[in-house]
Specification:
F-box domain-containing protein, 16-stranded mixed beta sheet, 16 helices, LRR_dom_sf, alpha/beta, two-stranded antiparallel ribbon
């Protein structure tokens, strides 16, 4: 029972508890050891030595292991041929994996270098019997990883791979996970668009009826093939963007329905989703004026509006998330098109955007609050609105911008404040008689203000509520199981 209670504590808190509470020392220590992180070669050496000193009372309690060795070792211990210490630490990691028989999750980054330094790591990964989730980053050609999947003794349920060299064949990967595994979640990453068109997939040979969640670059597989290979998919996240050049894909087969779809507008041009979707998240800023983005490519948000409207009409989402400018002209061409009695919309998450040099963003937001909420009020099913105010957009985006810690924060066209959040929330509640919950937040400010509408003889005042309480209400309203009749 105590172990069950302690399982709700972060492992760091459990470690502290084990040091100060003698009666709980052993139980708290076991929970603290259940989730282990190694972020440098020296940590790999020290933690492996500690675990292997007492395998039964230390290593056997490890369930999750994360190894991420990215930074160089200190100058006094660094080998020029092995600056990160991967060759030095790999044999120790291999020994630990040989004895870590109770692991259910493991993440290794960069796995290509670890496998090249010590072959036993791949053998140990394949020999694990209770592994459920495997996350391997920087996998190189993928040949070693394919071998691990073919030989794995575990019934893997979740896989995450980072194909940083753009060398892995997606059809080959599917064929290696189609036998002996019950993969329900697959996530793939790579760094640049590479497959136009995607590699052909032999659908009849690699069907994955167990797959429920798929997160991958949109150009890795065609939508038609994806529908056939993953017929019972529930969650689809399409990564990456492209230019608007070329013809969009023709509408074809689709799933009966999906729980969640998240994609950029340019990805949707190649993946015309036409089935009902519970939660739809549209990336890229709608109606953003044409700007210069990376690698001399331009981006025009005006072109996204009709694609977004077609997608919303085809999927009829219950939860909708989008980013959009605050222009008043959008009240007719966009907001009136998604609102109305026929809409299923229950939760709306909006990021209202403006460039960081704008001098009248507050006035634009104020005008938006007077124009758009009365339009949305025609959607009686709408119960929750989240407003994310972002006045930090730039007109030209470089490859690297404001990522160095010594660079000051980005300028913003509006100053975050509770008064602004309360003002906008009150106006939304005033205009929308069916709304129950409003949350307002600002870019680069992690705090959100949550306000709940109250019915009273004097009107519908907005009551400020605790963030945890607001998040619980929002989670319920946005969930698949929400009972809108409940208080």
């Amino acid at each position: 029972m105590l172990l069950e209670i302690l399982s709700y504590l972060p492992t760091r808190d459990s470690l502290n508890l084990s040091a100060v509470a003698r009666p709980l020392h052993l139980i708290a220590k076991r929970h603290a050891l259940s989730d282990v992180y190694m972020f440098s070669a020296m940590q790999v050496l020290k933690i492996c030595a500690y675990m292997l000193e007492d395998i039964e009372e230390r290593l056997c309690w490890v369930r999750r292991l994360t190894v991420c060795v990215w930074y160089n070792m200190s100058a006094d211990t660094r080998d020029d041929d092995d600056p990160r210490g991967i060759k030095l630490s790999a044999p120790h990691l291999a020994v630990l994996l040989e004895h870590a028989r109770n692991l259910t999750y493991i993440s290794i980054d960069p796995v290509e270098l670890f496998l090249n330094a010590e072959q036993r790591i791949g053998d140990s990964l394949a020999a694990l019997c209770h592994l459920q989730k495997l996350r391997l980053r920087q996998i190189g050609s993928g040949d070693e990883v394919m071998g691990i999947l073919r030989r794995s003794c575990s019934n893997l349920k979740g896989l995450t791979f980072d194909d940083h060299k753009n060398l892995v064949s997606f059809p080959a990967l599917l064929s290696n996970i189609s036998v002996g595994h019950n993969v329900q979640s697959l996530e793939m990453d790579y760094y640049s668009t590479r497959r136009v068109p995607p590699e052909p997939v032999m659908v009849s040979q690699i069907q994955q009826p167990s797959m429920r969640c798929l997160k991958l670059p949109f150009d890795m597989i065609s939508m038609d093939a994806c529908v056939q290979v993953f017929p019972r998919l529930r969650v689809l996240v399409l990564k990456g963007q492209s230019s608007m050049s070329g013809a969009p894909a023709a509408k074809g087969a689709c799933w009966p329905s999906l729980d969640l779809v998240k994609a950029s507008i340019t990805a949707i041009r190649q993946w015309p989703i036409t089935c009902p979707v519970h939660d739809l998240s549209i990336e890229q800023v709608l109606a953003k004026p044409s700007i210069q983005v990376q690698w001399n490519r331009s981006e025009d948000g005006e072109l996204y509006i009709p694609i977004a409207l077609d997608l919303i009409a085809a999927t009829s989402p219950i939860v909708l998330e989008l980013s959009i400018m605050t222009y008043s002209k959008l009240s007719t061409c966009f907001w009136k098109s998604i609102a109305g009695p026929g809409s299923r919309l229950r939760c709306l998450r909006i990021r209202l955007c403006e460039f960081d040099t704008a001098s009248d963003f507050h006035a634009s937001l104020s005008s938006w609050m007077d124009i758009v909420p009365p339009i949305l009020a025609t959607t009686e099913s709408l119960k929750y609105i989240r407003i994310h105010i972002d006045g930090t957009m730039v007109r030209s985006v470089g490859c690297v911008r404001r990522t160095h810690p010594n660079v000051p924060p980005a300028p913003c066209a509006i100053t975050p404040s509770f008064d602004t959040a309360q003002e906008f929330s009150a106006r939304i509640i005033k205009h929308m008689p069916f709304i129950r919950l409003v949350s307002v937040g600002f870019r680069h400010n992690e705090f959100w203000w949550w306000l709940r509408s109250l019915d009273s003889p004097s009107g519908r005042p907005a009551q400020l509520i605790a963030p945890d309480f607001g998040e619980n209400i929002a989670s319920h309203l946005c969930s698949l199981q929400a009972d809108i009749g409940s208080p």
